Write the structure tokens for this entry.
Amino acid sequence: MILTIIAFVVLTAGLYMCIKGDKTCNEVLIDCGFAAIVVGTIAATIMVFLIITAHVGVDVTIEKNRIKYESICERYELIASEYEDVSKSDIIKDITEWNLYVYSEKHWANNPWTNWFHSKRVADSVEMIEIK
């Protein structure tokens, strides 16, 4: 959120400097304003694109995460039973990777600098797997 606001502030400041430079015939102010407009426009365009892509496929991402979560839980239950077909270290590694993914999603979705780039719905739909 804050990064996007900064990009739009730079863009607005560039526009203001160009207008102010035209009125006062200040070439340096116009040049700085033009540079700020270019940087602000590029940054704002990239950020808007990232925000849109983060929120378009939310339902698919939630469903993929649910399937992966259930698969890992079933594999974990399998090693707890008497049928040990799967290596315990592989399951523990997968659970650790999943829990790191969940932590990362929740962290970035709640961070004011990046929360517009991560879907809150995805972060709320995933949960940690407890190892017993």
Notes: Residues 27-56 form the longest helix (30 residues). The helical segments are 2-24, 27-56, 58-80, 88-110, 120-125.
